[in-house]
UniProtKB/TrEMBL annotation, chain A:
One Gene Ontology term of the molecular function aspect: peptide transmembrane transporter activity
Keywords of this entry: Signal, Transport
Major localisation: other
Name of protein: ABC transporter substrate-binding protein
Domain Solute-binding protein family: 87-437
UniProtKB/TrEMBL annotation, chain B:
Family label: Belongs to the binding-protein-dependent transport system permease family.
Organism: Streptomyces hainanensis
InterPro entries, alphabetized: BP-dependent_transpt_permease, MetI-like, MetI-like_sf
Protein name: ABC transporter permease
BP GO annotations: transmembrane transport
Amino acid sequence: MTRFTPPILGRRTLLSVGAGLGAGLALSQLTACAGPTGAAGPGTISLGLNRSLVSLDNKLNQFEAAVTVQRAVRQALTSIDQNLRPQLVLADRFELDEASGSWTVRLRDDVHYSDDTPVTVEDVATALRYYGEVNGSFIVGLFPEMPTVEPVDDRTFRLHTQRPVAVLDYLMANIHITPAAANEPVELSSGVGSGPYVVTRANGGTGEYELARNDRYWGPAPSLRNVRVRFVPEESSRVVGLRSGEIDVIDSISPDSADQLDGMRGVRIQRSPGTRINQLFFNFRKPRGHPLADPAVREALTYAIDGRALIDNVLTGSAQQAEGVVPVALEGAARTGAFTYDPRQARQRLDALGVRDLAVKIIWETGEFAADTFIMEAVQEMLSDVGVRSTLQQFEPGGDILQWRQGRRGDWDVLGNGFGNPTGLALTSLQGMYAGTPEREETRDTYQGFVYPEVAGLISDATAEADRDARNLLLTDVQQRIWDLWPCLWAFVPDAVLAHRTRMTDPALKPINSYDLASVALEG
Amino acid sequence: MSTALDTTATPSPRPSAVSARQLAASTATRRARAARLKLWIGTVCTLLVVVPIALAQLLPLPGPNDQDLGKRRLAPFTEGHLFGTDQLGRDVLSRILHGGQVSLTIGVLAVVVSGVIGIVAGAAAGYFGGWVDSVVSRLLEAQMSLPLLMMLLLVVALFDPSVPVITSVIAVAQWPEVARLTRSLVLVEREKPYVAAARMLGLHRIQILVRHILPNIIRQATLVVLLLLAQAVLLESALSYLGAGPQRPFATWGRIISDGQDYITTSWWLVTLPGLVIVLLVVGVNLIGDGLRDRSRVRRTATEGN
């Protein structure tokens, strides 16, 4: 009998071995994918921003986290410190001449750009001119008027304004200096700066940047060799990125995410009282006769909002209800009142004012502030409890909310909006929000149509007042007047919150929600 | 010579050499059994989701928007909340069921509209041929070459994201699949003798199409429409997840998941439970569709065999 003996290495065996080898190879690749990917290497940290950094220039684009990165490349004459005071950076002298109202500034003799060319007076003059020439600049809105430069010598110059601006040293912290020849009246994505880092790769479309240490930096050399900046819009993705070590720093996180990260190994949370105010701001472009054009109606509606519950539960104690029209931590801020929750009084007042069957439309952009959608849904329910119907319209980033805000696309009643303060001065917020004039309203450049000439006049007077005490008195008066107009349905001041990996030193988080990137180092 | 039939002999239980055991193990029987099983499982999964959604208003549940900020993110089976509560203390089960009403309404309306468009356009293309076929075929090829989700997002961005807009957009997005299948079915049918006979009898072309061809293909076409229901629900959820769903406070499944994703490590139920409901419905509807298709194949094979 013939016995069939299978070959030692038959086709079946070959196929099995091949399949096993293939699976092994594929599995090893998959295992590599499953671990943290793209983690920053030694000497490098990675920042995950919640909003896209369209450029490394702040002519149009300035939000708190952006300042951290922009300042690492381009610097200003001054900067705002931990205590919200101006510190000299590119200048070694910045003095107000009280008699003339102009400022005398002298550039440091050792400051130069990353290409070794010196910072000149012409660069400052060009920067100021170009900031004034761009349309829709947030920064220009902070200035009562843009100063002009009068050169005195090759390092010294005077800053002139038609009316004195007593806080120009604070405001100039936002004017980034670039070589005049490389500057343009548009946002600059790359180029030469005087900061501790230089741009090695920039993609404004995706919001990704790579910075490298500026070896010719005029100041103390930064510790980190490279910094990677990424735009990660989804908060959950940023949290996961931080947990896995792919990202080293995330900022502007919601209270719930901070709770998730608190106490986690390898992650530290930093908090600081903020200078940003988040508001549910009324539309001041309502025609005469509309219920919301009446301050008494606006005040009545504020009683419907249970701010304490929102702070304690939705914001988990990481914010404070506003006690004035600007955050009280700001220089010159005044406590002008408080939001009170009393739904019965809200209904009684509305009835007394003859307002029945009121319907309001609330609009906001996703990500305008932490937990924005939950706050809006909670507010909607609170308004419904006092018989006020409301509809919500949420805009995605990149949508046309700007046109809605300006009243060009549709009507609305309440806007969810945050107003950051990059100077630490109450005056800056007041100027940006409440100094609207009829002339500016013609181009819809006022803050949601808030135009009260007497308020704008008082703010202008305070800006020109060199004496600090006298200025603060004027500011207190104007803030009370604004509060009595009830511009907000509700407002709160969130803490600045930042989470970072413990492999880096604690960034000194400032109340303006930014930090000095050059002072960050890696542990060990 | 006559042969007497022996009627007293014990009759064979089957007039075939194939035993009942072999028959039960045959491919055809296995297919029929699998089709029946799919139908049963699909029906149970679908009913488990659809019945509570349909009865949401009658169930003793809090309103989907009733908030209790003091009871945020309660775990399932806590304080009478079967599925727990969300970030604003709203009952998750109630939101899922009411959200299901929005998602299912959009899904059903969308597949009905896309089914009607697809069957009419596909039947016309298949039967009339010529320029009608060219226009319909090029249109559906053009639409199928576009990335579906991108197209939906673009249209929703151009118009306000409301229930009618989203329904129309999904309906328009899904008609090519129905149209393509209907066209191919009609192409086969129109060559059959009964159509030629109807033509010889002098019936109008539209009459032949509507009264004779469509009844023969409608069953297979509606099967595809049923399968599209699951896809429509998924599309609506995807749009809501991406922020292009109906404006708040409509609780749609995609939005419930999107709102809950930030809490996945601390409050798993906010994402997992609505996700499971979507899976249950989609799997259920797909199984029903598969089961019906398999059953019709088995029957057709049996008929053709006879």
